[in-house]
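User: Can you recover a sequence for this backbone? Please restate the input before giving your answer.

Assistant: Of course. Working from this structure:
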């Protein structure tokens, strides 16, 4: 990507008119950057702007002022000749103001919200030959976003209106929010009617709950819950905006989720965030809570390091944990647990101390369709992608568009399938049939 060469052909001359003081100052900033000098205002009022070069003894000078009571700024006097020594040139440090850079990249951000600060910085340096820090690039992007969608703090004002619009437009939608006692936004929960109906009537009763950080100005967390479609693909069910992952916010999220799934027993796959687990016990009871094996393995791995189990022995320990987790029945579960005990009793004790009924297949009381990891939550986080840096209003607006087109594409793909399941599941079934050819059943 290249940045628009806003400075190409940018000139100042006596009598020139700018539409506003802001336009005038912005043009001046770009002009100085393009010509590698810095300036200062000796007078900075609407009626009289007097600007000089910061290099001592340099005669560069510009005066301008507003025309009468209007906003139009006219250049009065302009001497565009610098007198700089080699050292002055070497000492040059540009003034990079986020607002001016933000204006430069505004159109690009509107077209491509995923334009990253790292890339902005690269493009800016390539096009202007001026160094820019990551922070400056981030601020410039924030400025551009605010100028497109309004101030982030103002976007919260639209939440009630947007919730009502969603409820009116999509029957069965739950869009709820809470405010603090002093009227400030606290949390939002949204599940569209079509997503709820689709999940309740046709999806397997398993849901994946997770939270990821928002990267924009708001800096809160995005809590999400998603299921699986008939092809084992992602099926987003609901999302929530909150300030952080704490007991109160997870509890409210789970209460909202309870409203949409009612008394139906549904497996809830999660990591081991303490507040989330507490909330699940309170709202759904702990039995339906399956833990993602990835987080568990990380904890187990750290435990082994603490106990001095390293390298090959650590790999063996992890393989044993895997065997315990995937064991099909309790007989095999205890078989692998005894093997682990013989390898290292401390590891077997760790398994006993870490509620294996939440993560070992054989002990988990409900059906989980062999889902041992919360991969769908990770798919959701990457599917959301650049929306994570939007303000809340923009997010709500873009999410509904993104989800409806996502579901539409799924519908078209799955309609081509001749069986009630999608091609991925069909392949799995075929594979299992082939592998079981010749197998008998022994009681
Ligand atoms: Zn100068």
């Amino acid at each position: 990507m290249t940045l628009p060469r806003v400075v190409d052909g940018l000139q100042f001359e006596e009598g020139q008119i700018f539409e506003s003081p802001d336009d005038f100052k912005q043009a001046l900033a770009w002009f100085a950057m393009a010509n590698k000098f810095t300036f200062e205002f000796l007078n900075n009022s609407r009626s009289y702007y007097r600007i000089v070069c910061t290099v001592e003894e340099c005669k560069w000078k510009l005066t301008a002022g507003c025309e009468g009571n209007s906003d139009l700024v006219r250049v009065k006097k302009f001497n565009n000749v610098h007198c700089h020594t080699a050292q002055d040139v070497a000492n040059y440090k540009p003034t990079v103001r986020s607002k001016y850079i933000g204006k430069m990249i505004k159109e690009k951000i509107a077209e491509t919200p995923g334009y990253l600060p790292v890339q902005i910085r690269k493009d800016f340096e390539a096009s202007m030959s001026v160094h820019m820090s990551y922070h400056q690039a981030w601020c410039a992007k924030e400025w551009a976003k605010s100028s497109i969608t309004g101030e982030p703090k103002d976007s919260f004002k639209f939440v009630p209106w947007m919730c009502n619009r969603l409820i009116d437009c999509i029957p069965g939608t739950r869009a709820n929010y809470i405010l603090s006692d002093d009227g400030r936004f606290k949390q939002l929960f949204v599940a569209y009617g079509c997503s709820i109906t689709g999940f309740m009537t046709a999806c397997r009763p398993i849901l994946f709950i997770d939270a990821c950080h928002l990267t924009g100005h708001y800096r809160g967390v995005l809590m999400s819950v998603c299921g699986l479609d008939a092809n084992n693909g992602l099926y987003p069910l609901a999302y929530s905006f909150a300030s952080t992952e704490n007991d109160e916010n997870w509890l409210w999220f789970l209460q909202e989720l309870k409203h949409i799934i009612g008394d139906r027993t549904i497996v809830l796959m999660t990591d081991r965030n303490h507040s989330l687990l507490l909330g699940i016990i309170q709202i759904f009871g702990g039995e339906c809570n399956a833990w993602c094996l990835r987080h568990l393995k990380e904890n187990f791995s750290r435990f082994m390091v603490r106990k001095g189990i390293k390298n090959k022995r650590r790999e063996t320990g992890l393989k044993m944990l895997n065997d315990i987790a995937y064991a099909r029945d309790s007989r095999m579960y205890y078989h692998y647990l005894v093997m682990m005990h013989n390898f290292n009793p401390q590891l077997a004790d760790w398994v006993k101390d870490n509620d294996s009924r939440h993560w070992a297949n054989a002990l988990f009381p409900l059906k989980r369709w062999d889902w041992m990891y919360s991969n769908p939550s990770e798919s959701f986080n990457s599917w959301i992608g650049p929306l994570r840096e939007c303000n809340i209003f923009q997010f709500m607006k873009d999410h509904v568009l993104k989800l409806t087109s996502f579901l539409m594409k799924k519908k078209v793909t799955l309609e081509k399938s001749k069986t009630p399941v999608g091609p991925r599941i069909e392949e799995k079934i075929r594979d299992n049939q082939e592998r079981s050819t010749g197998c008998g059943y022994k009681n």
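That completes the design. The mean pLDDT is 88.
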